[in-house]
Amino acid sequence: MSADGALISPPTPPRAAPHNLDAEQALLGAILFDNETYNRITAKLEPKHFYDPVHGRIFAACADTISAGNLADGVTMRERFAKDGALKEIGGAAYLLTLIENAAKLSVHAQEYAELVYDLALRRELIRVGAEISELAENPPDDADAEDIIEEAERALFGLAESGTASSGFAPFSKALATSIEVAAAAYESKSDVSGLATSFEDLDRMLGGMHGSDLVILAGRPSMGKTALATNIAFNIAKARLAAQRSGDYDNQPNKGGVVAFFSLEMSAEQLATRLLSDFTAIESDRIRRGKIHKHEYEKLADAATELQQLPLHIDETGAIAIAQLQARARRLQRTSGLDLIVVDYLQLITSSSRKSDGRVQEVSEITQGLKALAKDLKVPVIALSQLSRQVENREDKRPQLSDLRESGSIEQDADVVLFVYRESYYLERAEPRDGTDEHFAWQRQMDEVRNQAEVIIGKQRHGPIGKVKLFFDSRYTRFGNLSARTS
């Protein structure tokens, strides 16, 4: 009662987190009564999912014992806990017997109990995540804004939603075989060499079969070879094909449906990337666009092109030094909201590790490439990641790159499904011009005429197909690649 005589309500006791001890006891009793029960329940259930930590310890002990091929019952568990001095902690031998008492009639419902225990554990985790998000929103770190908090919330919630699904366990071979036949049938019916996303570079598509879902494609080259230009051209071609297919009025019957593209531009700004695309689309040199050295009719051409290109299903993220976890969260968000068919990352070495421990750059790159490969598999889309090459290329007479030239090449080469190298011989020849008027200069001029406006894409690794070399047309004025066969026929 307060000083003025009013009654004061007692404080409301805090509610316990969602749990069901009866279900936990029934499940443990069923396992102790019949060890085969453990093999029939959901594989997602782990000791941490039990509300009572004592139950979690009993479940862990049963799992270890049964997995080792030994019997887990009241006697063996009593001996196990007696040896580590924890028998009293779990309630003594009598508690184990209590668990088994009604197990015979409960074991048939063991799977239901396991699912209930797991579901309640997810609800408790959801409450914890919600509390953390609330705390972050009320007391944000000094370097975090609201968007950072939203991103962290998305990552935490997605991780919770995906818990238990990353490892799907064994699947019958018949299921995998049926999927393989479906893919082969679709490729056969298309009457095309391309079964994945077409890059619109005919010789490259012929060698790769297009860009395939779940593949990590590494596109590497020395500076000025044109790897960003090639990646941009591929992204542009795929997005442009999707727009054309949607406008056709007969989308389902289009041979090249293209796709929605996410472009993570860690080095170039979105404006620089857009300028490159405008240059490619309008055939106006990008340096003239940047400097404003264009004529009136060219400006009108640019304005018309901008109106056309803004409808492309191409999404650009220009965040510098993005963490691999942030990149994954943003790609998943885009797939949920707008769809997603291709991810391009420019470039791999600018992504940062999500872990705070620094075990060396090679370990960081390994985490990043594994994260990109996991993202490709989870979203079932191809991921094209650009990569720098080491300088040892410049020390060789033949400067065509090879797998060992990849920086931190162990993890990149191992995790990649496809490794492509961009090489332009003209780049090196231009810098080795002999004195004009000499015999060497005439020979050099003949060489330059042979390789001018040519680029090679070297397929250094391909899990599902041949390796080899593809020649493309390259126009440095517009940083544009094209089909060489179309230029020479």
Question: What brief labels describe this structure?
Answer:
9 strands, nine-stranded mixed beta sheet, Rossmann fold, 2 domains, 489 residues, alpha/beta, 20 helices
Word description of this protein:
With about 500 residues, the protein is α/β, with parallel strands linked by helices. It has 2 domains: about 20-160, DNAb Helicase, Chain A; about 210-415, Rossmann fold (3-Layer(aba) Sandwich). It has helices at about 20-35, 35-40, 55-65, 75-85, 90-100, 105, 110-140, 145-160, 175-190, 200-210, 225-245, 270-280, 285-290, 295-310, 325-340, 360-380, 410-415, 425-430, 440-450, 485-489; strands at about 215-220, 260-265, 315, 340-345, 385-390, 420-425, 455-460, 470-475, 480-485. A 9-stranded mixed beta sheet has the order 3-2-4-5-1-6-7-8-9, with helices on both faces. Helix 1 (about 20-35) crosses helix 5 (about 90-100) and helix 15 runs parallel beside helix 16 (about 360-380). The relative contact order is 0.09. The model has no long low-confidence stretch (mean pLDDT about 80).
